[in-house]
Amino acid sequence: GHGFPLSGIDGDVIPRVRVNPHYPPNALTKNIGGWVRVQFTVTAIGTVKDAIVVGSEPGTVFDDAALKAIARWRYNPRVVNGEAVERVGLQTIIRFTLQN
Questions:
Q1: Before 58, cis peptide (omega within 30)?
Q2: How many CA within 13 A on the CB side of residue 65?
Q3: Could you tell me if 45 and 85 are in contact, meaning their C-beta atoms sit under 8 angstroms apart?
Q4: What is the pLDDT of residues 53-62, one digit of tens each?
Q5: Contact 55, 48 (CB under 8 A)
Q6: pTM assigned to the model
């Protein structure tokens, strides 16, 4: 794989609520699968903001669906010294696979 550094990615960064993206109808029709790598910030209250696409295949087919989905994800707040803090620059890959 590509060498994406995992430093700064905490073991506790697993979404508490994970909303699956809507499969774009045109991709379904054409039997296209793919993935989107999203970079985002988890706020002190566990919501997602500032999500951007940093990589995707094929093209931008799945970008909108991935961003709409991750905007609805929820995380447990990260607490440091008793205070909830933002986590910036997290990344995740959202995969679009056709279920046969």
A1: yes
A2: 21
A3: no
A4: 999 999 999 9
A5: no
A6: 0.83
